Amino acid sequence: VFFLPFSNTILSCFKDNSIFAWECDTLVCKYQLPAPPESSNILYKVFAPPPPLVKVIEDLPKKKGNSGDLKVTVTSGRVQRPAKSRESKIQTRILKQDLTGSFEKKENELSDGLNKKRLQILLKGYGEFPTKYRTLSALAHWSTIFSDTPYLPLLAFPFVKLFQNNQLICFEVVATLIINWCQHWFEYFPNPPINILSMIENVLAFHDKELLQHFINHDVTSQLYAWPLLETVFSEVLTREEWLKLFDNVFSNHPSFLLMTVVAYNVCSRAPLLNCKHNMLDAFVALTKGQYPVFNQYPKFIVDYQTQERERIRNDELDYLRERQAVEDMQAEVDQQRVEDEAWYQKQELLRRAEETRREILLQEEEKMIQQRQRLAAVRRELKVKEMHLQDAARRRLLQLQQDQREMELRRLDDEIERKVRMRDGEIAATAKDLEMRHLELESQKRLYEKNLSRNQEAVAKEMRENADAYRQKADLEEHMFHRLIGTDQTQNQKIHK
C-alpha cells in the first residue's frame, strides 16, 4: 500500500501485479490498472511528482505615510505555490512495452518525500519512528492543509515537549489551539494571515503610535515583529516557566488574548526597539586589492594599556613560576634525599631484623632437631620392646595353637570312636535276637575289626587326619549295608512268618 504525496489517493498493489487507486476519505475505487498478461514483461512503476515551482513576484512599493497617517498597506514577502485542489485533472501516460531491455527492479524514492532506506535504518536502530513526528502526521491526516503548512512544527513543538507521554492529549490541545486561537490564519494560505497581522498592527497603533511609526520608518512590517511570535507561539522568546504561565492565561481568556499578547510583547520591548537605528551599520565595503585594509576601529590606548598590563602580568607570572619551580625542585630534591635516607635506614633495620629472625629460626630448628632425635630414639626403643613382646606372644600363641589343635584332634577322635562304638553296640543289642543267623558273621567281622584296629593303632596318630574322612565314609557305607541286610532279613522273616 502506498500513499500518494500531496493527494488524497491510496495505491494498493496485489500479488498478481494489479494496482487499484482508492479515495482516502470514502474508500471508493477511482481507477484500476489490471494485471498484465503472463507473456508480457511490463511492470508498473510509481514515480514521484516533480518538485513544486515557485514564482518570484516583486513586492509592491511600500508607502511611507506621514506621522499622522496611520493607514498602512501590508504586503507579503513570501510567495508559495498554492496547494492542488482535489478536482484538478489527473494526467495519465500510456506505458509501452520495451522488448529490447528490462526494467530496473529498483524501489522508487520520492525526491521531496520520505526515504524508505532511511526509515528502515531508523527502525533497525531504535525500533520505532521518532515520536515528535506522530502529532504532525495526525494533524496532516486530520486536514490536508497541515501537510503543507511550513510553520506547523514550530507551532506544535512546545506542546509535543509538554505532553511527551500522551500523544492523544497533545493532538487534541494543538487541534483546539488551531480551531480557536488560530482563527482566520489559513484564509491567505500559503501566505501569512494578513488579516490577523493587520489587526495586531491596528491594536499597536492604538496603544503605541510612536513604536508603530518607528517600524514604518524603518520598513519593519508586521511579518517581522508579529508573525514570528505567532507561528512559534512565543516558544523561542520565553523560558519554559514563562511560557507555561503565558498559556495558562491564553487558554483562560478570549482567543483574541493571544493577539493582545503579541502587541504587549512589542510594547514591553519598545525601549530597545526604538534605540535600534537603521544607520548604525555602514554599507558593505569590499576588501581593497593588492593590500588588506588596516583595521583600527577600536580604542587604541585601551588596547595598548591592556596589552602592556597583560605582558607585565605574564612576565610576573613567568618569574613567579620560575621561582616556584626552583623551590619545588629544591623541595623535591630534599624530599627525595629524605626518602632515600629513610629507605636506607628502613632497609638496614629490615636486614638487622631479618638476621635476628634467621638466627632465632636456626636456634629453634636446632632445638627441634634435638627433640626429634630424642623422640626417634624413644620410638625406636618402644618399637624394639614391642617387637620382642610381639615375637614372644606369637611364639606362645603358636605353641598354644599347636597344643589346642592336638587336643582337639584327640578329643574329636575319641568322640568319633565312642560314637561309633555306642552306635554299633546299640544296633547289635537291638537286633541281637533277630540276627542269630548272622551272629557268627558279625563276630568274625568284629574280631576282624579289632584285629585291624590293634594292628593299625600305632599308625592312627599319623594317618588319622588323612583317613578320617575315608573312614567315616566307609563306616557310613557299612552302616548302610548293615541296615540293608537288616531290612532284607526282616523281609525274609516276615515272608517266613506269613
TrEMBL record:
Gene3D superfamilies assigned: Ypt/Rab-GAP domain of gyp1p, domain 3
GO molecular function: molecular adaptor activity
Transmembrane stretches, start-end: none
Residue ranges occupied by any Rab-GAP TBC domain in the UniProt entry: 79-264
Residues forming coiled coils: 320-481
Pfam family, one: RabGAP-TBC
InterPro entries: Rab-GAP-TBC_dom (IPR000195), Rab-GAP_TBC_sf (IPR035969), TBC1_cilium_biogenesis (IPR051570)
Location in or out of the cell: Cytoplasm, Cytoskeleton, Cilium basal body; Cytoplasm, Cytoskeleton, Microtubule organizing center, Centrosome, Centriolar satellite
BP-aspect Gene Ontology terms: cilium assembly
One cellular-component annotation, GO: centriolar satellite
Keywords noted in UniProt: Cell projection, Cilium biogenesis/degradation, Coiled coil, Cytoplasm, Cytoskeleton, Repeat, WD repeat
Primary role: Molecular adapter which is involved in cilium biogenesis. Part of a functional complex including OFD1 a centriolar protein involved in cilium assembly. Could regulate the cAMP-dependent phosphorylation of OFD1, and its subsequent ubiquitination by PJA2 which ultimately leads to its proteasomal degradation.
Protein name from the UniProt record: TBC1 domain family member 31
Originating species: Cervus elaphus hippelaphus (European red deer)
Organism phylogeny: Eukaryota, Metazoa, Chordata, Craniata, Vertebrata
